[in-house]
Amino acid sequence: MVSSDKPILTMSAPPGSERSVAIAVFAMLAVVSFLPVLLTPIPAMVDYPNHLARMYILSQNGTPDANPHYEVAWAFYPNLGMDLLVPQMARLMSVETATRLFLLLSQSLIVGGALLLEWARKGRVHLAGFAALAFLYCLPFSWGFVNFEFGLGLALWGIAIYLMLAERQWPLRFVVNMVFVAALFAAHFFSLGIYGATLGLYELSRMPHRRISYRVAAARLGALAIPALALFGIMRITAGSIGSDGTSWFLEFKPIWPLRIMNGYNLAVGAATGLALMISLLFAARRGVLKLERAGIWLAIGFALLYVVIPSKLFGTSFVDLRVIPAAALILPAFCSLSLPSRASRMAALATISGITLINLVVVLTVWLPYRTDYAAMIESFHKIDRGSRILVAGTDDKGDPPFADLTSYPMYYAPTLAVHYANAFVPNLFTEAGKQPVRPREAVRRLAIPYGGPMPLGVLTAIAAGPPPTGIPPFVRTWHQDYDYLYVLGPRVANPLPELLEALDASERFVLYKIRRRS
Fold this sequence. Notes:
The chain is an alpha/beta fold and about 525 residues long. Helix content is about 50%, strand content about 5%. The chain is built from 18 helices and 9 strands. The protein has helices spanning about 15-40, 50-60, 80-90, 95-120, 130-135, 140, 145-165, 170-185, 190-210, 215-235, 255-260, 265-285, 295-310, 325-330, 345-380, 420, 460-465, 480-485; strands spanning about 70, 290, 335-340, 390-395, 440, 455, 485-490, 500-505, 510-515. Strand 8 (about 500-505) and strand 9 (about 510-515) form a beta hairpin. Helix 3 crosses helix 4 (about 95-120), helix 7 (about 145-165) packs antiparallel against helix 8 and helix 12 packs antiparallel against helix 15 (about 345-380).
């Protein structure tokens, strides 16, 4: 159902006692939601160890402890949120603490931005805070898309402030928009896209209702676009870039992601909580108690179309379409109303959203807390590696990437990249893609770099070492037994596949470290 374009302030407010209960429940959920990051030195997020390894390289650049295999090369391109902030923060604390503090800042921006956006639109907070906590560990965030999470939180604040200034003089709006566009461009390119799409759809939604002339609407849209176009122009002039080439659609996943979005570690829990949320929203909409205002309808349709048409992989960045879902979930509550008729229905709604949030948090904690031991074992194994060595990473399973059969193993994929700090090693899986990260492999090892990719299948490495390389083998592993000094094998324990070539040095439940006996 559709309401007017004006913010909805006429909903029946719950009595004071119910409001106090809701505030107390929200405060409890907020405290519990930040616990996983506070309790784990290295959060068990897929990409997080890789990002942490890069932060060590950036923070130690130009010092005697700098890694000899990598160099820092800054250029004018986006996706640099943590790369710009964490090394500066690390001047006051350890790199590990600074990186974790950046993650906490990103989560705070998400929750605070959602609350501010709803307050800017409605004059009070009602739904957005609970939505933000429910999605705080959704699949893109729990997989460690930290720069995107930071950028999306910043985008929420930018959208909220723009709405506050929507009827003010255009120079003020233009300056504020320019500041946020510049900050979002530096933080993450796709968060800038979410920001621009939201404000563009909002301005378009005002045309039929308030009879704004096309000329005025075009001027407002142009003012929104000018700072972004200027930044893109500067980037082209300075030979900057946005990621790399490569576009893939993976259309078969489009219908599946909405059911998996709520949890990045357990598909069954993700499907159950996602379905519970969808059914609750559908039931409320059919009963007429959940309504979208006019701008909300434009945004909902716009986000749905964007999710359908955007590629899954764009500019070398994977899971692009997946990121649209949490963005919509965080923005749309500010443009809808929920007016429940009875105390029982209000308490049921509160219990439902609290249950969804807590169930997902339990899964997060059951994965993250044991990984404290796994990551500690990995770091301890680095002491058995000669400093300056080259390390290859392989996997014993062939479950694909992501390993949907067991997503709890996913946070281990990039743990060996921490050897770039603890052993000054070269690890080919470190994120070093031009246009996205300011770290590059030096010339001597550049041919071995795998800018984006998980562990190599152990069966492939065994086949290469046993004889002529099979057809289709990428050049960076074609002579791996000659190029690398050590091999980490991740996954379930298996017998040494190459006893004459590999010497076991260390092992834990999730990995085995081998020394490679080089041979011609």
